[in-house]
Design a protein that fits this description.
alpha+beta, 2 helices, about 40% helix
């Protein structure tokens, strides 16, 4: 019986790892899509799986993923209007921040966003697919 229980635990861990990877892949795809709409020449700045609560492995696992892109002068206007509208049409909740250079998007457990740095010519697009236990 002990051997069966151990085997079951390994299967559960494998299923959880598959779920973690699936959620991470979906989040990366959404962030990459947003990055491509915001700017050009994407450079991955951050791509790491981390504990949902830092230092607490039991809390679950989540992706932290960020991409830096070069932008044109109209990037903030496009992000706040046509890009946000497109994501909203795809089922994302859009959080436009008044007097801000940032727009956030949420769908299910996933949260992504873009911060525009117009004076510096780049944007950072980042997010997570949420915590997977």
């Amino acid at each position: 019986m002990a051997a069966l229980a151990a085997c079951g635990d390994k299967e559960d861990e494998m299923v959880d790892q598959e779920k973690v990877e699936s959620v991470a892949a979906e989040a990366r795809a959404s962030i990459d899509k947003l990055a491509a709409l915001v700017g050009s020449r994407p450079q991955v700045q951050d791509d790491v799986m981390t504990d949902c609560v830092p230092g607490d492995r039991e809390s679950g696992t989540m992706l932290s993923y960020g991409v830096k892109v070069s932008i044109t002068d109209d990037a903030l206007d496009r992000l706040s209007s046509e890009i946000a509208d497109s994501f909203e049409g795809d089922g994302w909740t859009v959080k436009r921040e008044t007097y801000s250079n940032r727009v956030r998007f949420q769908r299910g457990n996933a949260t992504i966003g873009a911060t525009i740095f117009p004076g510096r010519g780049f944007a950072v697009v980042s997010g997570s697919g949420g915590c997977v236990k």
